[in-house]
Specification:
By secondary structure, the chain is of the alpha/beta class. It folds into 2 domains: 211 residues, Isopropylmalate Dehydrogenase (3-Layer(aba) Sandwich); 134 residues, Isopropylmalate Dehydrogenase, CATH 3.40.718.10. The protein is built from 12 helices and 12 strands. Strands 2-1-3-12-11-4-5-10-8-9 form a 10-stranded mixed beta sheet, with helices on both faces. The structure holds nicotinamide-adenine-dinucleotide. Nicotinamide-adenine-dinucleotide binds next to α4.
């Protein structure tokens, strides 16, 4: 059976890191004799320049019919004056909404050899291995909003079924890990958070009794993430809290360039992308770190193509490349070996890919 992956390189360093990620995906397919169809389509500023819209209908149609979608990054200063609804970043919001991608998964497992790149003391990072699950299509980012000359409002709304389904994603993942879930809310102040907490307790008690469920308020969670990061296994939280916590957690790993993400819905294709943006300041110079993009391919193999062994092999190859000192400039140590370029890092991973 042939599998289809739609590739959306996007803007800035998007095409550069995508090229390395796709080389790895092609190598996996060749080694496993997997029939893989790769379809490239425009998105973001590149699509706006080509057809006047950041998410062309043809691109969306291809994505809907695919097994998985891989995205580089979108955006850049050249589109700063474009109307909000035509900005490159809008394409990503529309794509997530159109594909019903309600669960955003961000694993954070710092590579020990990158400990020096994190602002946290190395001993704090020992044993850190967590995944943050952010609800992606509800809450305050999608609620009713308004503004007058002298005031503005945004509304946060959650239904029981929206909370149930994200808790189930967390529960299923926790069963494959250390069986601990931390639900983050602000139940001492917000009604949506009280609903969130009650629903989480019911879902975990009735459907996942073997999982330890902990509750933290968002303000405390922001602190505990830095003071005891190794205690977390699965964190599940709403759209805005997850947005903030996952960026905070990225600093545990040392660089924005190393972290992958997956966005999943109830059915249909998942969307896989590195967590960083289009980094226009370093675009076109072969210095971007493709690590997050390549690790996003591992997530694609695991969650959309059901190839967990291949996913493990990609992650091992990346770890091996880092362990043996292959570093892009963002991770290079002053006075250390000369940094490797974007394509050079891809070469190092491919050379270590054992399947
Ligand atoms: P950014 O993530 O693009 O860059 C922040 C800093 O990190 C920059 O100094 C950049 O050089 C560095 N960096 C990022 N990725 C790197 C990598 N792989 N290797 C080495 N260094 C890396 O964030 P920004 O500068 O705030 O945003 C730039 C553009 O990207 C904006 O238009 C923004 O809207 C867009 N953006 C897109 C996405 C996305 O496509 N998912 C996410 C965030 C931001």
């Amino acid at each position: 059976m042939s599998r289809t992956v739609v590739v959306l390189p996007g803007d800035g360093i998007g095409p550069e890191v995508t090229a390395q990620a796709i080389r790895v995906l092609e190598a996996v397919a060749a080694k496993l004799d997997l029939a893989l169809e790769l379809l490239e389509a425009p998105i973001g500023g590149a699509a706006f320049d080509a057809v006047g819209r950041p998410l062309p209908d043809d691109t969306l149609a291809l994505c809907r019919a695919a097994d998985a979608v891989f995205l580089g990054a979108v955006g850049g200063p050249q589109w700063a004056d474009v109307a909000v609804e035509l900005r490159p970043e809008q394409a990503l919001l529309d794509l997530r909404r159109s594909l019903g991608l309600f669960a955003n998964l961000r694993p954070v497992k710092p590579h020990p050899e990158l400990a020096a790149a994190s602002p946290l003391r190395p001993e704090r990072l020992v044993g850190v291995d967590m995944i943050i699950i952010r609800e992606l299509t509800g809450g305050i980012y999608f609620g009713k909003r308004g503004r007058s000359e002298s005031a503005a409002f945004d509304t946060c709304e959650y239904s029981v079924s929206e909370v149930e389904r994200i808790c189930r994603v967390a529960g299923r993942l926790a069963l494959e890990r250390r069986r601990k879930v931390t639900s983050v809310d602000k139940a001492n102040v917000l009604d949506t958070s009280r609903l969130w907490r009650e629903t989480a307790i019911r879902v975990f008690t009735t459907e996942f009794p073997e999982i330890e469920l902990e509750h933290l308020y968002i303000d405390a969670a922001a602190m505990h993430l830095l003071s005891r990061p190794a205690d977390f296994d699965v964190i599940v939280t709403d759209n805005m809290f997850g947005d903030i916590l996952s960026d905070e957690a990225s600093m545990l790993a040392g660089s924005l360039g190393v972290l992958p993400s997956a966005s999943l819905g109830a059915a249909g294709p998942g969307l896989y992308e590195p967590i960083h943006g289009s980094a226009p300041d370093i675009a076109g110079r072969d210095i971007a770190n493709p690590c997050g993009a390549i690790l996003s391919i591992a997530m694609l193999l695991r969650h959309s193509l059901d190839l967990p062994d291949a996913a493990d092999a990609v992650e091992l190859a990346v770890r091996d490349a880092l362990e043996t000192g292959t570093r892009t400039a963002d991770l290079a140590v002053t006075g250390g070996a000369k940094p490797t370029g974007t394509a050079g890092f891809g070469d190092a991973v491919l050379a270590r890919l054992a399947l």
